[in-house]
Amino acid sequence: MKRVLTILCALATFTAVAQRSGGIDAAMLEQIRSGYKGKASDVAVKNALASTSISTLAVNGENLAMCDTHFKHQVKTKGITDQKSSGRCWLFTGLNVLRAKMIAKHDLKGFEFSQNYLSFYDLLEKSNLFLQGIIDTRELPLDDRKVEWLLKSPIGDGGQFTGVSNLITKYGAVPSSAMPETYQSNNTRDMRMILSLKLREYALKLREARKGDIYLLKTAMLTNIYDILVKCLGVPPTEFVWTRYNSKGERVSSKTYTPQSFYAEFVGEDLENNYVMLMNDPTREYGKVYEIDYDRHTYDGDNWLYINLPIERIKEVALASIKDNTAMYFSCDVGKFFDRKRGVLDVTNLDYGSLFATDFPMNKRQRVSTFASGSSHAMTLIAVDTDESGKTTKWMVENSWGAKSGYQGNLIMTDQWFDEYMFRLVAERKYVPQDILKLLEQKPIMLPAWDPMFAPEE
């Protein structure tokens, strides 16, 4: 007994020293090692993990059957798009929302907007946004937080819905045949690297330039950026001929359009004023309007502005829109509990707790506040199922990863997964209750550009 007490006292002394130093000393390491029992089940798991991925071993065997794919309410859509190796989910999603409306309104057999056309101007505008940001902050030191944020990510092809609305309002839209995809538009990593390198070089020159030379210097820089974009993506059309066929394959018309006249004739919506961005961010107060500083695609465009709401209110809006055959821009943390083969998002898909003999108890608020979860991908919300009482039970989104991915190009999510990993929804004003719209009368609370919750969706 005396020996045991001596050992305990020694351990207590060593632990106290370790607590003061903050390091792992010999005594603490011995305590940690002794905590591992190495039972037969532990050895079996260790052996399995030596040659198999965690996500494979964590698969819930009772969840392997395909879920019910019937939906009581579903928006009529045609065709699945594919963003390939690019971060343009936000653009594909926004255009897919408009595409569904255009097909229904004009009785088309199928249709796809040119993502490449708007990608071109998105990258040109983001280049200007960066360069003007450098000009606006040129009196600040290089290690200032805002300057550092600009230089760390001068350009990317990710984004969010205000990019769709601002770009189309300014540049119009064209069919895919008028400016088809290229290898570089589908595989953007190298192009982004080249653009980033030039923009960082230009940033240093602008910070050192005389004030009177800045406008001409920036224009010359953007001319060079334009040249790079043309080589990678092609020349954006200012005029083109488009022949329209109806759902029976019959020719209806053939006309010459500009990008602005094409959008006006076939869609014509006021994207900047007709849509409301809703958010479920449990780390911040509900019923408030938030604005993200410098989170826009064009310098003269709009910052990201959203209303933060409980998930139940967002479901209310989503249900009303889908019932009226209107798809919505939707974003979430797509990688969590995702069965890629079946295309199902379900919190019971993977059982990490049983595999590692521990639990993972954090709720949505805790995950967001500790950077364990956040919106990562945008898709088009097109379907919802409800039980006899009208309660939502599952949802479906149209994805932009090609027709062979997921469930026929779509992803199905349980209602519980929706609660835990859905973050953003963009809906038309007519589907948003008046008490929610009234919240827009508030002065927005400004959040910094580097807030991790608002990283671009890719």
Outline the fold blueprint.
Elements: H1 2-21, H2 26-35, H3 40-49, H4 54-57, E1 73-74, H5 89-106, H6 115-136, H7 145-152, H8 161-171, H9 183-186, H10 189-208, H11 214-233, E2 240-245, E3 251-257, H12 259-266, H13 271-274, E4 275-279, E5 289-292, E6 304-308, H14 311-323, E7 328-332, E8 338-339, E9 344-345, H15 352-356, H16 364-369, E10 377-386, E11 392-398, E12 410-414, H17 415-421, E13 422-428, H18 434-437, E14 445-447
Parallel strand pairs: 4-6, 5-14, 9-12
Antiparallel strand pairs: 1-10, 2-3, 4-13, 5-6, 7-10, 7-13, 8-9, 10-11, 11-12
Description of the structure:
- With about 450 residues, the protein is of the alpha+beta class.
- The protein has one domain: Cysteine proteinases (Cathepsin B, Chain A), CATH 3.90.70.10.
- The chain contains 18 helices and 14 strands.
- Strands 1, 4, 5, 6, 7, 8, 9, 10, 11, 12, 13 and 14 form a twelve-stranded mixed β-sheet that branches. A two-stranded antiparallel sheet has the order 2-3.
- Helix 6 packs parallel to helix 10.
- It is globular, with a radius of gyration of 26 Å.
- About 35% of the residues are buried.
- The mean pLDDT is about 95.
CATH architecture: Alpha-Beta Complex
**What does the average pLDDT come to?**
93
- By CATH, the topology is Cathepsin B, Chain A
By DSSP, the count of extended strands is 14
User: Outline, from the CA principal axes?
Assistant: globular
End-to-end C-alpha gap: 63 Å
Helix-residue proportion: 40-55%
Structural class: alpha+beta
Q: Helical segment tally?
A: 18
**Uncertain stretches of 5 or more adjacent residues:** none
